[in-house]
């Protein structure tokens, strides 16, 4: 079992049977120690992406309520660190990615589970450290 920080791609993939990452995401969720960490930006993105998939948005909240996902509040306490990350990476990094990188800095034993190997392969935590990733 791994300690994990969940990005939007695997969350959507696990809940949408038609998603290209569905099988991979379901397999990864089976290896994650509960609760997996995430942020409110990921929940927002996932709800938006799953808006046309019946019951999927309700399933996100069920995962939170059952303690499978733990949404870690980052603002206002981590605002300066998140702003610094966004400034460092410019247009490449969105708010959700910055929050996940910050979670990785705060929870160093956790692995970021993402389908975005390209961006997360570039991002660094604590300045120069590669972020431990679980990617397809």
What does this entry look like structurally?
The protein is an alpha/beta fold and 136 residues long. The protein has a single domain (4-134), classed as Rossmann fold. It is built from seven helices and seven strands; from the N terminus they run E-H-H-E-H-H-E-H-H-E-H-E-E-E. The strands form three sheets. It has a three-stranded parallel sheet with strand order 1-4-7. A two-stranded parallel sheet has the order 2-3. Strands 5-6 form a two-stranded antiparallel ribbon. A hairpin with a 3-residue loop joins strand 5 (124-125) and strand 6. The radius of gyration is 14 Å and the shape is globular. 38% of the residues are buried.
In DSSP terms (H or I, runs of 4 or more residues), the helix count works out at 7
Estimate the strand proportion: 5-15%
Biggest β-sheet: count, sense, barrel? 3 strands, parallel
CATH superfamily: 5'-nuclease
Assembly state (oligomeric): single chain
CATH topology (fold) name: Rossmann fold
CATH-derived architecture: 3-Layer(aba) Sandwich
Q: Strand order within the widest sheet?
A: 1-4-7
CATH class: Alpha Beta
Distance between the termini: 17 Å
Query: Given the helix and strand composition, which structural class is it?
Result: alpha/beta
Précis, in short:
The protein is an alpha/beta fold. The chain has helices spanning 8-15, 22-29, 40-49, 56-65, 79-89, 95-106, 117-120; strands at residues 4-6, 36-38, 69-71, 111-113, 124-125, 129-130, 133-134. It is 46% helix and 13% strand.
